[in-house]
Amino acid sequence: THNLPPGLEYLNQLDQIIIHQQVELLEAILGTETSSKYEIKNHLGQRVYFAVEENGCFDRKLCSPIRAFTIRIADNAGREVIRVIRPLRCNSCCFPCFLQQLEVQSPPGTIAGYVVQNWDPFLPKFTIQNESKEDVLKIIGPYATCGCFEDVDFEVKALNEMTTIGKISKYWSGFVNNVFTNTANFGIQVPVDLDVRIKAVMIGACFLIDLMFFENSLDGL
């Protein structure tokens, strides 16, 4: 583990990662958008990281699901260990030359990998790349992502798109919770021996999927 980026040793033995959005009281009552905060937990529900989104109020109001952001992820000691950077880009299949990209750094300032949206007329598709921009994995979502009364799974696949090795799931946690707070609850399942840098990139992919497909959807309700 001495070769791992500082702070990523927590991911070394994990094959399941839970991401839970923290809802501010003002946002829950008035519907006012505030900076998103997340807890990142292991399968036992123990918090291993805390994440905070940074952007301007103007970006959140005007650009909402396609907004640029920086998410800083810190360990329980308050040390920033992962930084997720998303530039403002298009969110439409009509503009295949300007699709979504996301950069993940760990430690901050050092590239761990990228998430790149792939053009497809029907399905949400993404490629996970390492720090050298070499393709490592694919993520393929369902045709419909409304998630009415059920979980929504984005499959993590080998590059041939034939073998499924994991998934990113948006959990449906109940009508009252989602309609009044629209909280994000995600689970990431990957092989335990997957490179921890790629696990960090998968966390970034989870944030991107949330913003693209679930930010204002209220899970289809």
Automatic annotation (TrEMBL):
What cofactor does this chain's UniProt record say it requires?
Answer: Ca(2+)
What molecular functions are annotated in GO for this chain?
phospholipid scramblase activity
Q: Where are the transmembrane segments?
A: none
**Recorded superkingdom:** Eukaryota
Name a single GO cellular component: plasma membrane
Which Pfam families does the UniProt entry name for this protein?
Scramblase (PF03803)
The reply to whether Nucleus figures as a keyword in the UniProt entry is no
Q: Which InterPro entries does the entry mention?
A: Scramblase
What family does the database annotate? Belongs to the phospholipid scramblase family.
The record ties this protein, via PANTHER family, to: PHOSPHOLIPID SCRAMBLASE FAMILY MEMBER 5, PHOSPHOLIPID SCRAMBLASE-RELATED
What does this protein's UniProt record list under function? May mediate accelerated ATP-independent bidirectional transbilayer migration of phospholipids upon binding calcium ions that results in a loss of phospholipid asymmetry in the plasma membrane.
Protein name according to UniProt: Phospholipid scramblase
Q: Which organism is it from?
A: Ploceus nigricollis
- Gene name in the database record: Plscr5
